[in-house]
Design brief:
The protein is built from three helices and six strands. It is an alpha+beta fold. Strand 1 and strand 2 form a beta hairpin.
Length: 145
């Protein structure tokens, strides 16, 4: 999965400052796709995907996007792995710190750690976050009449 590359095609919905939102059509393979963490539910016929735009696309352009397996693995780790580690560490540390109502206070401590992590990720987006987006690799502008 680390070296896997997934390709999707879609239509640009909006583009600004090197970031584009594209609409992709649902397919039969969407429910099995490992890149679901990047897609957002859109209208009834498709999903939306936020991507890096090195070409300066415009709304209506047809694009091809690549999603690298290493990026999926990295995003999954930050989204699921770190909170799980913090949750387990908070419970084990809480059992060592607290003397009364160990289960209750260590659970609160663990949930607090995960909440602080989520707040940090939400409030302080990193510049590397842009590098984790899928990238446009091909643009086909619509014919103008």
């Amino acid at each position: 999965m680390y070296k896997e590359e997934l390709y999707e095609e879609g239509i640009v919905k909006e583009a600004k400052d090197g970031i584009a939102v594209i609409n992709i059509h649902d397919s039969d393979n969407c429910h099995e796709c490992t890149a679901k963490i990047y897609c957002k539910l859109g209208n009834s016929e498709g999903r939306s995907l936020t991507v890096r735009d090195p070409y300066g696309v415009h709304p209506g352009d047809k694009v091809r996007v690549v999603i690298k397996g290493s990026k999926i693995l990295s995003a999954s780790f930050f989204l699921y792995g770190i909170p799980l580690i913090l949750l387990l560490a908070g419970i084990f540390i809480g059992f060592e710190i607290f003397n009364e109502n160990k289960e209750f206070y260590s659970s609160l401590f663990a949930i607090s750690l995960v909440s602080v992590y989520a707040l940090y990720m939400f409030l302080f987006p990193k510049k590397e976050k842009l590098n984790s987006y899928p990238e446009i690799i091909f643009v086909s502008s619509p014919l103008k009449s």
